[in-house]
Amino acid sequence: MRDETRAREADACDRYVYDKYAYEPFAVTVDLAVLTLRAGALHVLLVERGQQPYAGRWALPGGFLLPEESAEAAARRELAEETGLADVGGLHLEQLRTYSEPGRDPRMRVVSVAFTALLPDPPEPTAGSDAARARWTPYDEAGPLAFDHGLILADARDRIAAKLEYTCLATACCPPEFTLGELRQVYEAVWGTPLDRPNFRRKVLATPGFVEPVPGAARLTGGRGKPAALYRAGPAGAPHPPLLRPSPEGRLA
Amino acid sequence: MRDETRAREADACDRYVYDKYAYEPFAVTVDLAVLTLRAGALHVLLVERGQQPYAGRWALPGGFLLPEESAEAAARRELAEETGLADVGGLHLEQLRTYSEPGRDPRMRVVSVAFTALLPDPPEPTAGSDAARARWTPYDEAGPLAFDHGLILADARDRIAAKLEYTCLATACCPPEFTLGELRQVYEAVWGTPLDRPNFRRKVLATPGFVEPVPGAARLTGGRGKPAALYRAGPAGAPHPPLLRPSPEGRLA
DNA sequence: CCAAAAGTGTTATAAGTACACCCATGA
DNA sequence: TCATGGGTGTACTTATAACACTTTTGG
């Protein structure tokens, strides 16, 4: 809190000061809400904290921005480190928002840029050099998290739920070849509501480029029933009209 | 760029280090894309830079976070300073995203949290203590802006355009009492497309709580034609079903 | 056989689109 | 009177929701 006056005078017109060390430094980090589907249920990747504050509590993975790295690059690097995935380049990674409340870390001023990702077929977390322990946790069993990570996680789910309505994002959560039943499970798990199977099928197939059939292939979804045809993700970005959630509730205000 | 190794080791499990000055400091700022409607056209509030870099170029208003201030609070403070508005508390202010590319400011590492706001009845900018010159500029005439502010401005318009579809945000851009023609102009200006007047009217009136009639009142919209009934913003946050843009194009991918 | 999941069909209602038409006002 | 914007009506098309029904597998 060294010189608030100078900060205000340096505003707008001469917006950035030249003395880099004139202010209390801000730490800038990224936090990741990495979601996936396991056995039809939404899961989130959590790491266990080894130190104070919040020692022993679970937290979202994350870390500092390196000096020459954008927040997006830092998030992608962290994602690769935590999941052990080799090719993290093509994965869907979306900036949620930035959390900057002064008291969110008791030790110092930390501004965190939050991202969310939706992964298919989750590999076990590496629990590598960084994290003491890392694990996939069912979304509903993610107890109180460290810092404001519970809020970030809830925001992530809201964002993903909203994007399922007007984008083809759901395929990001499926293996390369998937059945329409598996695709429907993504929607049902994220929205927390069952969908009408026939109508869902028609809606998806009626959207050009949402999915593409894999000729001849078939697979059983739950070990039972008729084998289902397989599809691959198509090139389309957004269905039109969108695939709206059943309940009028749950929409953002 | 003092100690990258430590930054990585301090990751995840001991996520935030204790030595506040161990790293190259990041400056954290807010940038504001303040939009409004003047004479049926979308305008944005710009300030003229007096110093290098980008001296003489127009830029979005913005400034540093104070040491004990969240990004939201800083944005609201800047908004009040730049517009001279007395009560900025109830205005719609939305976090867009955070811009963190290493080279976005040539002098030092600046991470900027961008916000957008939609104002009614724009007061002339104060051009107060901060800004050399500030003015409302038609969106289409906002030439090349300083830094990456052109990108931020485009993102702001995209966000506002999307939010008009599934929220009742448009009333934020109208005076306290407005005609349905004025409300429709908001959509047409932001979306850049004409709307069918009768259908728009029905859609708005059919949404409970979107607008409330002001009994007996009437006003001419463009100095011509039949006087139109006046409405006030209602309590509803979101129309259901949403008010979708006409063209399938322009949707985010 | 039954249970489970895929896949097809049908029907009723709701919503969106594209107009035609009349009304009230200022110039 | 004409141009302009407000307001109402209506026919057509599309989308949604809620089902019933058949098919193909495993147990």
UniProtKB/TrEMBL annotation, chains A, B:
Annotated keywords: Hydrolase
Keyword Hydrolase belongs to the record: yes
Domain Nudix hydrolase: 25-167
Domain of life the protein comes from: Bacteria
Transmembrane segments: none
Residue span of region Disordered: 217-253
Biological classification of the source: Bacteria, Bacillati, Actinomycetota, Actinomycetes, Kitasatosporales
Source organism of the structure: Streptomyces ziwulingensis
Similarity annotation: Belongs to the Nudix hydrolase family.
Record protein name field: NUDIX domain-containing protein
Keyword Cell cycle in record: no
InterPro entries: Nudix_hydrolase (IPR020476), NUDIX_hydrolase-like_dom_sf (IPR015797), NUDIX_hydrolase_CS (IPR020084), NUDIX_hydrolase_dom (IPR000086), WH-like_DNA-bd_sf (IPR036388), WH_DNA-bd_sf (IPR036390), WHD_NrtR (IPR054105)
